[in-house]
Amino acid sequence: MKVAPDPSRRSHASRRAILAAALDLVGEVGYTKLSIEGIATAAGVGKQTIYRWWPSKGSLLFDAFLTLAGDEQDGATAGLPDTGDLETDLKLVLRTTVAELNDPRYDLPMRALHTEIVHDPALAADYAKRLDEPMRELKKERLRAAQRAGQLAEDANLDVAVDLLFGPILNRWLQRTGPLTPEYAGQVVETALRGLRPREP
Amino acid sequence: MKVAPDPSRRSHASRRAILAAALDLVGEVGYTKLSIEGIATAAGVGKQTIYRWWPSKGSLLFDAFLTLAGDEQDGATAGLPDTGDLETDLKLVLRTTVAELNDPRYDLPMRALHTEIVHDPALAADYAKRLDEPMRELKKERLRAAQRAGQLAEDANLDVAVDLLFGPILNRWLQRTGPLTPEYAGQVVETALRGLRPREP
């Protein structure tokens, strides 16, 4: 018998406990050693409770990361802020990202996910489909709005733009090649945007 | 008794065999499971031969990566090409990097190094000091020459510039978020340089 998720408060609390346990554990033991059994024990629920909601540890972990990304509405993600000023909005987004990556609660699970992706092409494809592509589309939507507002060159390649804006933060965090500060985030936005703005006529 | 490295041809062949074995093995088993003993066996030399030249597996591996980077002159690295045209030179460098990252011989050991760095702050510090910083300095030297030639803004932050130019390639390779092509390398250079060029007066 298939049981639909219980919308009660208790069910919601279990769900949150499972997602939190998955993030804690993946940071501690890595993706390979992460098990549904271990997550169930840490969350204080039965394995069947987890299997009722998630078919695999991969799907559970991705929901956990979506939660971490500030989204708990089953996969739908909020757009980037749009105050009408692209530079201000991007600086806000990148500085928030910097603050999250510097938060020890996020640091270990995010590192675990990123290194598993590097070695596991199937997980990388899942990551691309479930996390990178939807997030990238939201970023490109904000950049398209900036193009309509004349703040970004009409012919800018938006995939390259996303990579130039968001890639350096991720690299510096992963490789610890320099301090990951709000100032650095601001400089990345300023330099990248100078290259992306409409050329003077 | 301390024995200085033997400059004979046989010694040079052993050294190359050891470096090649280290790269092969780290790609196969990862940095954690990499052992001097395993490298010695694979290279057909005694463990003492390795310890005579390298104090640790870390120092051996970094020499192996420096070899991979096309440099076998004990740590000294060649500068970036300088034809006088920054865009042409950077496109050449980034397209060469793309070709190397797409080469299966480099792919696995480089992934192993990058993921170990992500989880091991001590190795990250060693990587920063022995590989990233010297390479970064060479890149910045080329950018400084471009500043003197009026091809780059005087006030460009050169660390941010290096990150914008080289980071996106590394990310796309590690995360497989899109095809790593020479065309992509060219677009990254063009977009980043538009942001870094001197502003029109």
Automatic annotation (TrEMBL), chains A, B:
Xref: InterPro entries: Homeodomain-like_sf, HTH-type_TetR-like_transc_reg, HTH_TetR, Tet_transcr_reg_TetR-rel_C_sf, TetR_C
Residue numbers of the DNA-binding region are: 35-54
User: Mind telling me which Gene3D superfamilies this protein's record contains?
Assistant: Homeodomain-like, Tetracycline Repressor, domain 2
A Pfam short name: TetR_N
Note the SUPFAM superfamilies from the entry: Homeodomain-like, Tetracyclin repressor-like, C-terminal domain
Transmembrane region(s): none
Claim: DNA damage is one of the keywords in the record: no
Q: Which UniProt keywords apply?
A: DNA-binding, Transcription, Transcription regulation
Domain HTH tetR-type: where? 12-72
- Cite the PROSITE patterns for this sequence: HTH_TETR_2
Name listed for the protein in its UniProt record: TetR/AcrR family transcriptional regulator
Source organism of the structure: Plantactinospora solaniradicis
